Amino acid sequence: MNISIKKFNELSLNELYQILQLRSEVFVVEQDCVYQDIDEKDDKALHVIGEVNGKIVAYTRCFDKGFYFEEAAIGRVVVKDNQRKYGYGHQIMKASIKAIKDHFGTENIKLSAQQYLIKFYESHGFTSIGEGYLEDGIPHIAMVK
Fold it and tell me: Reduced to 3 states, what is the DSSP secondary structure of residue 5?
């Protein structure tokens, strides 16, 4: 998987379309969750994009400290359903953590994890904090690194 890191104004129209399509495919359709994915925050994010054969199959968006949380943040962590068996989730997380360190100068990161993925995020050094909560009807928990 080829990984690129781009600011919003560096994304091509095709890349933006594929990102929004992937997020909708997984978060809205697969997870049966009606929510406002296009939230006017993408233009403030650093976009970490994983491509295979010219198609975006993995993605995250990252924010500097103070935007979402006191810490830097990783969100919209997504891998295309038929590509999950290749370890792309781990690759995109490693790249996202490195991008935050390189672009924002911090290793303190917070995210809102779907609870069924706690072990996945723990494998990248994150620890659960606080109580679980519902976000858009899906059980989540805050995690920090």
Answer: strand
Selection from 145, 139, 141, 121 nearest residue 131 by Cα: 141
Q: How far is CA 4 from the centre of its chain?
A: 14
- CA-closest candidate to residue 96, choices 66, 39, 58: 58
Arithmetic mean of pLDDT over the chain: 95
Beta bridge partners of 127: 144
Summarised one tens digit per residue, pLDDT across range 95-119 is 999 999 999 999 999 999 999 999 9
Q: Hey, how many other C-beta atoms are within 10 angstroms of the C-beta on 77?
A: 22
Residue 80's pLDDT is: 97
Tokens of 119: 């072990």
Enumerate the H helices of 1-144 as residue ranges. Answer: 13-23, 88-104, 118-122
Q: What is the pLDDT of residues 38-48, one digit of tens each?
A: 899 999 999 99
